[in-house]
Specification:
Blueprint lengths: L12 E10 L2 E10 L2 E6 L5 E4 L12 H9 L9 E5 L13 E10 L3 H7 L2 H12 L2 E6 L3 H11 L4 E2 L2 E2 L7 H7 L7 E8 L2 E11 L2 E9 L8 H16 L3 E6 L9 H8 L3 E11 L2 H9 L5 H4 L2 H22 L3
Helix pairs in contact: 3-6
């Protein structure tokens, strides 16, 4: 580190709290506030510190070296074994000499709507046209009571999504408002309407020259109208108008899970894999062991692909059976 670099004594840091959403519920968590950024700690057996809302904020971790020094001095609720942080898309060349893995991000180049459209398979372009022909209209909306009610209607349609229990099912309007009320000063809400009803929505968060797709959801009952495809097309249109170069849509590969319907949907709509450095800095002796053995990946990553696929299939069938017995539509 250069001699004139800031030290832990010079840093503007404090211990505070932030509200985080965990499995569909809001909880208060302790945080290290450093130069306007918040670092939180998660995990039971392996405590991992990370930048709060890392995938949605406008900057990556500003000073990892200083953050490591400060975290090593913490005790109690903020004691961490590992600091994890990533570089931002499209910065794919490693810039730090810390242990790292490449993180698989789903990214679409959206600087030119025409180029994105022409890169899509014919079926995807047909789906966007089909949506309009079947009566779906796409509107850019403010986050008002109508949109909140519409989002709640989409989320409360079914308790099972993608083969698992959907944590946002059954939430009140007030809870929906809180869940989706973040980053409103740099977000767009795009809604799909059919006969006056919101049948799908997309929330796009702008992060400088990139945009992050935070939520994309639509009603299963209107799947034949392909509202999700039309929503994505509108999102790319907005990105081009703003000079946005890349749009992210979560992960491309989910560890050992392999191919999935969600990944296929992303591929069909212009998203591909971009590998971004994801750093794991040991802070304790136990943390060093976990980094050496890559235990931070979790038990799911240690299972063979076939075993994991079988387990996910059984989970999906169990949730479906349980829902049917409870008489939930």
């Amino acid at each position: 580190m250069p001699n004139d670099a800031p030290t832990a004594m010079d840093a503007a840091f404090s211990i505070s709290t932030v509200d985080i959403s965990s499995r569909g519920r809001w909880v208060e968590a302790p945080a290290l506030k450093l130069d306007g950024q918040a670092i939180i700690v998660n995990g039971k057996w392996i405590k991992i510190a990370s930048l709060y809302d890392e995938d949605w904020i406008e900057e990556e971790l500003r000073n990892p070296e200083l953050c490591v020094k400060l975290l090593k001095g913490q005790r109690g609720v903020l004691k961490a074994d590992i600091l994890r942080f990533s570089q931002m898309v499209p910065d794919s060349a490693p810039r730090f000499a810390f242990p790292m893995e490449l993180r698989s991000i789903a990214v679409a180049e959206v600087g030119n709507l025409k180029n994105w459209w022409e890169s899509l398979p014919q079926e995807s372009r047909k789906n966007v046209r089909r949506s309009a022909k079947r009566g779906v209209t796409i509107r850019l909306k403010n986050f008002d009571e109508e949109v909140i009610s519409g989002i709640a209607g989409v989320q409360n349609e079914t308790p099972i999504r993608q083969g698992r229990k959907y944590p946002h099912y059954g939430k009140s309007l007030e809870a929906v408002k809180r869940d989706h009320g973040s980053f409103l000063d740099r977000s767009d809400f795009i809604c799909a309407y059919f006969e006056g009803e919101i049948v799908g929505f997309l929330k796009l968060v702008y992060r400088g020259k990139i945009a992050a797709l935070l939520q994309l959801n639509s009603k299963v009952a209107h799947y034949d109208k392909r509202p999700s495809n039309a929503l994505l097309a509108k999102a790319v249109e907005l990105c081009e108008a703003r000079g946005i170069t890349h749009m992210t849509y979560g992960l491309f590969n989910y560890g050992s899970k392999g191919h999935s319907p969600l990944r296929e949907f992303k591929e069909r709509n212009g998203f591909s894999e971009m590998l971004i450095p994801n750093y794991f800095v040991p802070l304790t002796t136990w943390g060093q062991t976990c980094v050496n053995m890559k235990l931070y990946r979790g038990i799911r990553e240690l299972l063979p692909k076939k075993m994991l696929a079988t387990a996910l299939n059984l989970r999906s069938k169990w949730y479906t059976s349980r829902t049917s017995k409870a008489g939930v539509a």
